[in-house]
Amino acid sequence: MVASLMKARSSNPHSQYPEKQEQPMFKSPISHRHLLFSLILIGVALIPQTGVYAQLGIISVQPNRVTGQTAVELVVTGTDFVDGAVVVVENFGALTTSFVSSTVLTAVLPAGIAPGVYTITVINPDSTSASLPGALTVLEPTATAAPPTSPPTGVRPLLVVESYSAGGETITPGKSYTLIVKLHNAGDQFAKNILVVFPPGDFVPQKTGGVQAVAELGPDETQRLSQPVNASYDLLGKSFATVVMQVSYTDPNGVSYSETFNLALPVTPPRPGAFNTATPTPTMTPVPIARPQLVINSYGTDVEILQPGVQFELSLELQNKGNADARLVSMVLGGGSSSPGAQPGTPQPGGVSGGSADLGNFAPVAASNVKFLGDLKVGQEMQTAASLIVNANTNPGAYPLKISFTYSDDKGNYYTDDQVVTLLVYSLPQVDVNYYRPPDPLFAGQPGVLPIQVVNIGRKSAVLGTMKVTAEGVELSNNEVLVGPLDIGGYYTLDVTAIPMQAGPLELLITITYSDDFSQARMLTDTLLIEVQEATPIEPLPGEGGFEPQPEPQPETFWQKVWRFVRGLLGLDSSVPQPQPLPGEMPPEQFPGEQPVPVPVQGPKG
């Protein structure tokens, strides 16, 4: 039945359902050419292009999910990074960034960032930038882990060695002593979980294993440590023994700190036969060992405040305090040695080695770290200097710099003396004080507004104290304010009202107080100049001395009366002359006189 119905529908031209005609897949040969041309374009696009330069871009950020409870180091990978590039977190600010290569940057994300999804942006020194939306996710902190509170900037515990000794005894190789060290907390916070380690070296620790612990040490408090040690026989031929003391501790917020101290103690040469068994055999009178000994009496820098990136000159004052002349003295910054070593009378090829010096924080400039000084006689003093630069990545703190002196004596014995000097590195705020718009003209004796602002132009945030504006010969108001923290590129404005007393150049002195990295009060000063103009004269108004006074009328003389009489006989005006009215004043004769008021008369009523 279905077949018959289909046959009837196909045979009936007027059927309700006309038969569908099959359509070709391509309407014309042109469609084939279009398809072929499109495939060729796609193939060309897929061919690898060579010689195309990479553009600044961000590929990934690791880790991309953090909690924000502690500081995290982010690794940013991408293309075309340049030394000096800065990683910026959207709605948070710039991070401390380190350049690794053109494809890798590292940045420190501080603790305390709010939970959310952030866009990461990399800005090159030429102001080109690239962003990766949603690259970093900060999660809510868990209920069991309380985020540590970051300490305020510049507030931390700082352990230093106040004094040390070997119990007042002279050091002789092979004998036992008690090393006494007095620790002092020079910081502003408690130092907790203090661990002091004495590694074996010139002295071998005894009884305690070279490790001592102190629970805590408050600000400005001291702690006396006693460590039994035994002097090593390696001290034979040396004038000083070095004790390395490693100290690690934390602040109340759990932030870790570590310090390394090098303590030097003089060594007394042993008597001949002091380490042999005593016998009644007569011995010769001991003769002191003749050897040179170089000591740094004093040192200093030509720059008062050392900051990252600052180049300075380190000056040293040396003296030979031994009992023999020092020959071929060389100074090695960062530590070094000489060869062939302490081998008397054996001439061998050798020299001074300074390639393994520790110069991570202070690097030599314009010359190597090895400097030849020549000969130094007994008791002779010598001045020397070296040009250094502070590493740009050095954090504020007290850093020891090891200096080695290599020399020989008249007998060909070689010596190496290691000494340590301490250099303080600061990171002071860098600000710019100027007008945030052109100031209005100032007139003497009239009030005016001085639009002053301070801008943080440094590479990290700064905490500033009170900003005050002063000047001589001017009354100032609203000239003192507390600034507080300023982010990178942040600013603070102050509108000062000034009333200068006299015209001429006016110098404004701006002072800003703050605390440095060692909690010492410091002050920034800057000056601004502005020209004070003469006051504009004020014209008096009419009625206030604006017109010349009129002369008083003079009494009439006899002849004036006769003349008026003659004028009257001739029919002319013989009235008394009246004074001329002032400009805008009505003449007296034009003033309306008193006129009688007519009153109507009424008749009687009726």
| CATH architecture assignment of the largest domain | Sandwich
Give Rg in angstroms.
Answer: 48 Å
Write the CATH homologous superfamily of the largest domain: Immunoglobulins
Terminal Cα span:
137 Å
Number of strands: 36
Unreliable spans are 1-30, 43-53, 274-279, 341-349
Largest sheet: 5 strands, mixed
**SS-based class:** mainly beta
Q: Structurally, how many domains make up the residues?
A: 4
Q: What's the pLDDT, averaged over the residues?
A: 80
The outline comes out as elongated
Hey, roughly how much beta strand do the residues contain? 35-45%
Measured as a percent range, the helix fraction is: under 10%
Q: Tell me the number of helical segments per DSSP (H or I, 4 or more residues long).
A: 3
**Lateral strand order in the biggest sheet:** 2-9-8-4-5
CATH topology assignment of the largest domain: Immunoglobulin-like
Please write the CATH class name of the largest domain: Mainly Beta
Structure description:
By secondary structure, the protein is mainly β. The chain has four domains: 57-138, Immunoglobulin-like (Sandwich), CATH 2.60.40; 152-270, Immunoglobulins (Immunoglobulin-like, Sandwich); 291-427, Immunoglobulin-like (Sandwich); 431-533, Immunoglobulins (Immunoglobulin-like, Sandwich), CATH 2.60.40.10. Helices cover 7% and strands 43% of the residues. The chain has helices at residues 2-11, 29-46, 558-569; strands at 57-62, 65-66, 72-79, 86-89, 93-94, 96-101, 104-109, 116-123, 129-138, 159-165, 176-185, 191-197, 203-205, 211-217, 222-231, 240-250, 256-266, 294-301, 311-320, 326-333, 337-338, 352-353, 362-364, 370-376, 381-390, 397-408, 414-425, 431-435, 442-443, 448-456, 462-470, 474-477, 480-486, 491-500, 504-515, 521-533. The strands form nine sheets. A five-stranded mixed sheet has the order 2-9-8-4-5, with no helix packed on it. It is elongated and about 155 Å long. Mean pLDDT is 80; it is low at 1-30, 43-53, 274-279 and 341-349.
